[in-house]
Amino acid sequence: MLRQIEKARERLSEYFSPTPTVRSDILSQQHGGPVRLKLETQQPTGSFKVRPSMNSMLTRLEQARSKGVVTSSSGNFAQGAAYAARRLGVDLQVVMMKSASGFKRQRTEELGATVVPCENTFKDRWDTTYRIAGESGRLLIHPYDSEETIAGDGTIGLELLEQVEGDFCVVVPISGGGVISGIATAIKESRPGCRVVGAQPSANGSMARSLLEGKPVAVTPGPTLADALMIAQPGKRTFEIVRRLVDDVVAVDESEIRGAVKLLAEQQKLVVEGGGAVGAAALLNGKVKTAGLPVVCVLSGGNIQPSKLAEILAAS
Amino acid sequence: MLRQIEKARERLSEYFSPTPTVRSDILSQQHGGPVRLKLETQQPTGSFKVRPSMNSMLTRLEQARSKGVVTSSSGNFAQGAAYAARRLGVDLQVVMMKSASGFKRQRTEELGATVVPCENTFKDRWDTTYRIAGESGRLLIHPYDSEETIAGDGTIGLELLEQVEGDFCVVVPISGGGVISGIATAIKESRPGCRVVGAQPSANGSMARSLLEGKPVAVTPGPTLADALMIAQPGKRTFEIVRRLVDDVVAVDESEIRGAVKLLAEQQKLVVEGGGAVGAAALLNGKVKTAGLPVVCVLSGGNIQPSKLAEILAAS
What we know:
Strand order of the largest sheet of chain A: 1-2-10-7-8-9
Order of helices and strands of chain A: HEHEHHEHEHEHEHEHEHHEHHEH
Oligomer: homodimer
Shape of chain A: globular
Largest sheet of chain A: 6 strands, mixed
């Protein structure tokens, strides 16, 4: 898997520069030790999802170009994939529940993808996606549970190894588990002293719950500001990697997520969405066992609805 | 002067890492050519002002430590200097008009500086500052018009030379003219093909007006969202450098500044204050003659009042 991440990095280097890491004065102060932030919010489309989607298309570029691509997402992966498809000259269909916000649908369409509506269940979303792939020969790319996706996600970890000296504790948002799987795979082999900690909203503790039960289990996700982390169940591949390589998975509640979004905007001058801020929220609330290591929080995305951010900023 | 900037960089390297530059997809698209952003918003205290204030104190550290430091500012320089003083173990007094916002005063005091109130005129502010320096022997550090300040500001330019290959056009906010003087000095000698363009709010066109008249002249600044760029008159040193090295100075109106702040927050995921966004505003409104060069906008600060940002985000 590590070799695949290295290959993904080679592939992606033609399209993206490494995202910066910055030292956060305010988080270091509040945490009581050095904290750096990995700014995936600065990627095109405002989240890390351009990495896995672009890597998945580049891996099978001939099929992607001749037959097109299909995927399933209502959020950041849809936009990332639409961006990648446009840059690669690939036709993309994105299966999205009818209940997905008009805002998200519109942004995906603006990037040139075709949105295929489906019923409001994860089952129908996947059934529709696999049906389209089977009927059309389109390349199906998975938002979190394929090797190509995890390899693309893992390029964040390779960048961190270059940007941060020595052992560190990285805190990573968890939804399906793709990005933390990729990062853990990338860094644990060359720096086994690093710690990898995942953070989830309490409203959707699917990975923590699955780890307890020893297998991927489904939960019914509740509403959360971290809407990018709404998933019924971790992936099979990602669950196995998380079980093997991730040191801890912690949960943060809504007021903690909200507080982190507010602090990051007001004091760190960064717009981070709820799902991108769960790691910082966990750290700020003393939930991350860092073993005394310097900390890196991966700010995975910034796609918060402007009116929602306005509301958070206006509240005292 | 270039040698002083190089020395400033050596001095500051112990305290600050270079700020990142990132490629902006949305600005590149809207401008129609590659645009990068220099993220001074990621400095401690949220603006580039830690560079000139820290350099000024380090240049005369013995005096600063034994006698203390005095300066005059109601905004970003006050906070930058307070941060530098705290890190260097220096006692700092900041002369601020009584009319300065409680918010700014509070943030400066939280960083450990003592605020000395004065009457609501630039004249009384400077009279008070020079009187304190004369009576107490405190080191007086100037917010924009001293060699140490300009040298500290210029370190941004040296970083850009390393971060950007080949010739580029850099767009820089102008208030007293310190940061554009430093940047122009740093880059014009080694890359004379680079362009340096300044941007000011129309509400305060003091530099443009002074260039027209061939000497620093005073204007009466009107209210502007770019409150960090409120100054009656350019510095003497900075005016001479700008006249010699800066290619163009352009003005942006309030709706353009507001639009740039909104776009940077919503699409680039960066919180930038009005004064930090004037360069992007000028570019977005076709006011920057780039000579076909790739563009770098210096986002000089992010200290916008949260309620103001909320209002801008909530407006359509």
